[in-house]
Amino acid sequence: QVQLVESGGGLVQPGGSLRLSCAASGFRFSMNDMDWYRQAPGKERELVASFTGNDATNYADSVKGRFTVSRGNEKNTWNLQMNSLKPEDSAVYYCRVGARWGQGTLVTVSS
Fold first, then answer.
1. Which helix (H) or strand (E) holds 101?
2. How many CA atoms lie within 13 A of 20 on its CB side?
3. What is the dihedral of CA 81, 31, 59, 107, to 10 degrees?
4. Strand pairing class (91-97; 34-39)
């Protein structure tokens, strides 16, 4: 069964942290072909971070220095560590692995 599942979203205060996870199973994929995207209400989906290897990551300018993408400790998982969160980081966050997309996890940054 093909599964690509994000988790870890929730409500956090400005300045706080969250760690999102993405878990893949049931299809062929490369661990070095993975992106995190986000989509806020009324806005287009945007690329947040890309993982193409342990030493090969890229970030949108808006999250550089605050977000870190990495492989997870569990098999076939990736994490997105988000620190110093801002209200404008509020969005549904999606992981993309190969040609597949997860269902998204909602992050809300608000006091």
1. strand 100-101
2. 31
3. -40
4. antiparallel
